[in-house]
Specification:
Length: 197
């Protein structure tokens, strides 16, 4: 289904959608070349073959080019959401598209105890997400390996959008444990440190 908003048309991808492959091989790959998920993982998740729900939403410019996209997942045991990827094409940056994609995802994930995001602590990117209402989750976070042959990413900061003023540590622990169980089939990295209630 396509939805018009401002300068863009928003579409939600299915597993066989040619736009999904174009996004994955285009601006997504360029932005996340070092740590990217295989297209086959996305397609399997969109077919319902994984224990979480994946949504890939794209913004199309007037000429049909992909202006940006966001991927997010819903985890059933913890009830939490995870914003996995968000990228805006260079010609559409500083237009408000990134925040619009994020806000729409947060609306769809409303009701979750928390919506998490994994952000590179490069100063500018983290500051942008903090302006958009995220808060840094205290403790040490290590992203699980996204596919066989990929390494765990130890450079990311875990952020969260939560309804409660104080995010309970048990919510964070349940989510990270579920994320590792789904991605790697085991417990979290022993260096992961969670908030204590």
């Amino acid at each position: 289904m396509a939805v018009m908003s401002g300068s863009w048309t928003f579409v939600t991808c299915t597993a066989g959608d040619p736009l999904l492959a174009a996004f994955h091989g285009g601006i997504y790959w360029q932005a996340f070349a070092a740590q990217h998920e295989p297209l086959e993982v996305w397609q399997a998740a969109l077919r319902g073959e994984h224990p979480y729900r994946l949504v890939v939403r794209l913004a199309l410019a007037g000429d049909g080019a992909i202006a940006g996209g966001i991927c997010y997942e819903c985890y059933p045991r913890s009830g939490c959401g995870l914003l996995t990827y968000m990228v805006v094409a260079p010609g559409h940056r500083r237009s408000g598209l990134g925040e619009q994609l994020l806000r729409a995802a947060l609306v769809e994930l409303a009701g979750a105890p928390a919506v998490f995001g994994e952000i590179a602590d490069d100063g500018e990117r983290l500051a942008r997400f903090l302006r958009w209402g995220a808060r840094v989750v205290p403790g040490r976070y290590i992203q699980p390996a996204l596919a066989p042959g990929l390494a765990r990413d130890r450079t990311l900061v875990l952020v969260a959008w939560a309804a409660l003023p104080q995010l309970p540590g048990v919510v964070v622990r349940r989510f990270v444990e579920e994320l590792y169980a789904v991605t790697e089939g085991g417990p979290p990295d022993p260096e992961c440190r969670y908030p204590v209630d």
